[in-house]
């Protein structure tokens, strides 16, 4: 089986069958990663460039490791030391890279739609590793994989996405995916950090009360405050935010059930999530990081035209 698309630009473009295939393939690659020899020859002689125009630690390392585990040849593109820093356009940069016979491009960019632009102009397969405030599809997939691994299903699962929804591409990919797979989604945060159109446009519930939201959900996927994307003051202070919307140990202990806590990272400890929650047995944050490699191996493999 293969995906219905040549690229992974967003969850919005994937079918339920596509998502199910990626998650099933990721299960198989996770089994590979538990072996003493974790490397397979699936993408031998495939050349992949990691084109990151934004800073990244987890996502870039996860893709690099996934590529190495699949035996691909990889090129890591550092914008600060490239001709892009001298004013070269995105299209010229990529065309120059492709002239070196690159098969796939993993791309992160601050401009929403940048991977979609590239996909229209170059023949290589494009994987969106995060574009502006649009989407972060592999994060949405690894979050779904982690939930399914924990609960055995996605359908009917109650998932709360808490925090800076307005600026979060992770939130958008999660919402698209969870809606398609039959989960129930509520977003929670300050009114200034939740888009006004989100209930009508995306079919999610909105709750501004953190305790009520946590009482309702099975999973709390907590997002960081993205100060670097905010061009105006949207709440009084980080301390005030932590008081109203920080997920704390005492708050979880007072719930009538035990919920699962997730976070895409990096964590602002003491702001959206306290350390004794992030490091607790309810947290599957490190499992998310581990699962990210298997999910990205699945995506790379399925888009390589070697899975048919």
Task: Tell me what you see in this structure.
This protein is of the alpha/beta class. The protein has 2 domains: 11-135 and 290-303, Rossmann fold, CATH 3.40.50; 137-288, Aspartate/ornithine carbamoyltransferase (Rossmann fold). The chain has helices spanning 16-33, 58-69, 90-98, 114-121, 137-151, 169-180, 198-202, 210-216, 238-245, 249-253, 275-278, 285-303; strands spanning 47-52, 73-78, 104-109, 125-131, 158-162, 184-188, 205-207, 219-222, 260-262. A 5-stranded parallel beta sheet has the order 7-6-5-8-9. A 4-stranded parallel beta sheet has the order 2-1-3-4, with helices on both faces. Helix 2 (58-69) links the parallel strand 1 and strand 2. Helix 5 packs across helix 6. The longest helix is centred in the C-terminal third of the chain and has 19 residues, at 285-303. The radius of gyration is 19 Å and the shape is globular. The mean pLDDT is 92.
Please supply descriptive tags for the structure shown above.
308 residues, alpha/beta, Rossmann fold, 2 domains, five-stranded parallel β-sheet, four-stranded parallel β-sheet, 40% helix
Strand order of the largest sheet: 7-6-5-8-9
| Largest pleated sheet | 5 strands, parallel
In whole angstroms, how far apart are the ends?
A: 6 Å
Assigned CATH architecture of the largest domain: 3-Layer(aba) Sandwich
Q: Using only CA atoms, what is the Rg?
A: 19 Å
The CATH class name of the largest domain reads Alpha Beta
CATH topology of the largest domain: Rossmann fold
Order of helices and strands: HEHEHEHEHEHEHEHEHHEHH
Helix content: 25-40%
| Spans of at least 5 consecutive residues with low confidence | none
Count of the domains: 2
Tally of extended strands?
9
Helix count, DSSP H or I runs of 4 or more residues: 12
Shape by Cα distribution: globular
Strand content: 5-15%
Structural class: alpha/beta
- Average pLDDT across residues? 92
